[in-house]
Write a structure and sequence with these properties.
elongated, alpha+beta, 11-stranded mixed beta sheet, 11 strands, about 260 residues
Amino acid sequence: MTDMATLRAQAAAARSTDAGTSAMAVPRDRPAEAEVRFTSKLRAKKVLRDEMEWYEVEGYASSFERGYEMWDYFGPYTEIVSKGAADKTLAADPEVVFRFNHTGTPMASTRNQRLELWADDTGLGQRAWLNPKRSDVQLLIQAIEDQDVREQSFMFRITEGVWSPDYTEYRINSFDLERGDVGPVTYGANPHTTVSARAGEFLTSIDSMSPLVAREAYERLGRRADLASLRQPTPTPAAPEPEATGRSVSMLRTRLLVGQSDDY
């Protein structure tokens, strides 16, 4: 098995060849204004605001100056968001909505002043006030309280970034939040855990998951499977994991997707 250091060296060499002499190049599958995701812990509580009760959900959607692993067509690399990368877009008062898993009906927005965004030394923070009468809000809050949903994320466009001289690190110096979103996600976006490490756990625990969480688990497995295929261009058949005996992602697809819509 190829170790991570070798994969990084191979990926860096491929990026260098592909980019020529341009240190501003970005990964092939991430154009200069690509949408990306970050995650951080979140918390929820009930508060009184404007003489009404709301669920307040707060956390950091991004951390500054802390590297995390990402993948492109060539392999792994480290990505870092620079401190100050959000300053320009926040100064422009962007329109941003709050929603679960980057899909579905918005639950709050900067336009109705029920979504606050800020940047500090830690990263990009957000605070949203959600209507407790909405059924989707009730479901989300229950999932947070049950710790089925423990992280949050946001979506934006990269407007300025640069590779390190050795093409092993990509730094985001500026991003645009206009018409983006923030909110809780079931699973973090950093693709560092492979299918082989987690598939058995997901498949054996799927019976105890709520339908919403189970479906997200399946989708996350699929994304990790795609990334895992990048690590080994000519993969060889692997022995099935004991935990997943008698089950497969194909079976899971049928179970989770038949009769279910995409509007959650």
